[in-house]
Specification:
The complex is a heterodimer. Chain A is of the alpha+beta class. Chain A has one domain. Chain A has 3 helices and 6 strands. In chain A, the strands form 2 sheets. A 4-stranded antiparallel sheet of chain A has the order 2-3-5-4. In chain A, a hairpin with a 4-residue loop joins β4 and β5. The radius of gyration of chain A is 15 Å and the shape is elongated. Chain B is an alpha+beta fold. Chain B folds into 2 domains: about 270 residues, no CATH class; about 120 residues, Alpha-Beta Plaits. Helices cover about 30% and strands about 25% of the residues of chain B. In chain B, β11 and β12 form a beta hairpin. The chains are: A alpha+beta, B alpha+beta. Chains A and B meet through β2, β3 and β5 of A and α10, β15, β16 and β17 of B.
Chain lengths: ~120, ~450
């Protein structure tokens, strides 16, 4: 039995910027989820999720030892923090756009935190 | 040789907390052996702002955060033998050194030995067109003649040399952020310049420390999913590094925050592109073999950094004028707020299209669609049920009159716009644009001088 959750349920994400390039590190809270994320959260899917920002290139780097991924999105920050008219020129909030993606995980797989169920980390 | 080096971080940017260093220095003082406190205070544009300040007053141009960040801990650092390394020299390291000597004097402290690291400033050495030819991507500098600041990123060697000369405090201008930690490690452990894996480990330690609390629970908390206790008193990090380059990240006892596998990995990948090739002046860092292991409460061991030979070219950041950013906000709240906000946007667009046809105006509807929106036109609020919307109009131009025109138009919504427009705020801010260049190593001329020593 699989069930669908948002990435936010099983993973952490952190954004960083350099010029007009954004990187989002995605880290599985439980390393057991690495394979499911690797299969489903592809660079193409992330590019589609950020289509409104017209990325010219999206690359995913895999870090299996850390159960983590690094997504690099080119030209999505409206020129970067020095040029963007938006409120978040750094793209700091965009990690949470990535965490909105849905993912299928096996029901038996460990889940580090459920919504409404607190767990200190 | 010392078994372990302790490096604490007291600031990850110029706006960081001025009391952050106090628990870090307290924890370092309780240890013995070589101990250092690092300050990273130079974001890309910060140095350009300091350069502008220096042009107005040759005695200024160092980090405006220097007094605020250093004063609370200087006495204990000097008393305990904790040596300070900071890039708060910004555009004027010699004047930063003078200011530190003044602070020490005003606190009644013995005169510290202050070393000044310079040689990052490219002004007068590469022309605007020579810089433009070296710009990565080449979009910003091509049309520019007036360079505000051009600084390459120096490596760790000059910081190590400064410490070799017995400096209590090392002030630099632009250096790689990670060099603020690698410099002390080179000074203590005498790692060779081709010992790539150890240089990589020292660079990694610096990378984990350079953003302060971002590795100890800052920029991390997400209630219900990633709870962090004591965030208001989050402890800033301390790295313990041994001669082989094994790193333990921890934080002062009794502080808030958390150090665990996840806080460390999030920071490990922060602002990284290819994890197999993170370019620093002294080494190219490969993170793909790194292991992160929780070994105790708020103690995480980081091992396995690998290094590749230092890059031939050095990165430089070049800043030029970027026009003026205008922003004006007005609120619409209560019944039918979204429709009134939408009408306000249409009124501004109609009037500005006539008065300044080429000006790109962005409209955000804070409370409905803003931070995650991408629109350079009015957001469609027809479906919005929000009854608390703050409209934000923004535009950028080299023409100050056009920006004032937009701000005036938004202000005029008070009397001439939709019903209930409230709480106008407006401001025009000069902007800087920054470009990244790759510069030949021969343009780096690092030099170390001691404050007060005859030149």
């Amino acid at each position: 039995m699989n069930r669908t959750v948002r990435l936010h349920e099983i993973a952490n994400a952190r954004s960083g910027d350099k010029g007009d390039r954004l990187n989002i590190a995605l880290v599985c809270r439980e390393p057991a989820h690495f394979a499911a994320v690797a299969t489903q959260v592809t660079a193409e899917r992330v590019a589609a999720a950020f289509a409104a920002r017209k990325p010219t290139r999206v690359v995913r780097f895999d870090l299996p030892k850390l159960a983590a991924f690094n997504f690099v999105l080119d030209d999505v920050l409206e020129g970067g923090v020095n040029a963007s008219l938006g409120l978040d020129g750094h793209g700091k909030s965009l990690s949470f756009l990535l965490l909105d993606l849905a993912i299928d995980i096996a029901s038996g797989e460990p889940q580090s935190a459920r919504a409404g169920q607190k767990q200190s980390v | 040789m010392a078994a372990k080096v302790f490096i604490g971080s007291a600031a990850g940017f110029a706006g960081d907390r001025s009391d952050a260093g106090i628990p870090v220095v307290g924890a370092l003082a309780a240890h013995s052996g070589p101990r250092f406190l690092m300050y990273e205070t130079l974001a890309e544009r910060t140095l350009a702002l300091c350069q502008l300040e220096r042009r107005k007053d040759p005695a200024r141009g160092y980090s405006t955060a220097l007094d605020r960040l250093l004063t609370p801990v200087l006495k204990q650092c000097l008393a305990a033998g904790i040596r300070v390394v900071g890039n708060f020299g910004a555009a004027n390291p010699p004047m930063a050194a003078r200011r530190i000597a003044e602070i020490a004097r005003s606190l009644g402290l013995p005169a510290p030995r202050i070393a000044i690291v310079e040689g990052d400033d490219l002004s007068g050495r590469l022309s605007a067109s020579e810089l433009a030819r070296r710009e990565t991507g080449g979009k910003i500098l091509a049309q520019m003649r007036d360079i505000i600041s051009a600084n390459l990123y120096l490596g760790a060697q000059p910081i190590a040399h400064a410490l070799d000369q017995g400096a209590d405090i090392v002030v630099t201008g632009r250096v790689a952020d990670s060099a603020l930690a690698l410099g002390p490690l080179l000074h203590v452990f005498r790692w060779r310049a081709e010992d790539w894996d150890r240089l990589a480990a020292g660079t990694l330690a610096g990378h984990l420390l350079e953003c302060g609390a971002q590795v100890t629970g800052g920029y991390f908390a997400d209630p219900g999913y990633k709870d962090v206790t004591g965030l208001a008193e989050v402890g800033y990090p301390i790295a313990e590094i041994d001669a082989d380059g094994d790193i333990v990240i921890t934080k002062p006892a009794g502080t808030g925050g958390v150090v665990n596998r996840l806080t460390v990995i999030e920071q490990l990948l922060y602002e990284i592109h290819d994890p197999a090739a993170y370019f620093a002046p002294d080494v190219v860092l490969d993170l793909t073999g790194v292991d992160v292991l929780e070994i105790g409460k708020d103690r995480v061991r980081v091992t396995g950094a690998r290094g590749k030979p230092a890059p031939e070219m050095l990165k430089a950041t070049v800043c030029v004028e970027g026009g003026i950013l205008g922003e004006a906000e007005i609120s619409y709240a209560g019944v039918n707020a979204a429709a009134r906000a939408r009408l306000a946007g249409e009124v501004i667009c109609e009037r500005m299209q006539r008065r300044a046809p080429g000006l790109v105006i962005r409209i955000d509807a804070i409370g409905a669609v803003s931070v995650l929106g991408n629109s350079s036109v009015a957001p469609d609020l027809r479906a919005s049920e929000s009854e608390d919307i703050r409209l934000r109009f923004s535009a950028q131009s080299a023409d100050a009159a056009q920006i004032e025109m937009l701000l005036d138009e938004v202000e005029a919504l008070y009397c001439a716009g939709p019903a209930g427009g409230a709480g106008l705020r407006r401001r025009a801010t000069p902007r800087l644009a920054s470009a990244a260049c790759l510069v030949e190593r021969r343009y780096a001329e690092p030099r170390v001088t001691l404050f007060g020593a005859p030149v």
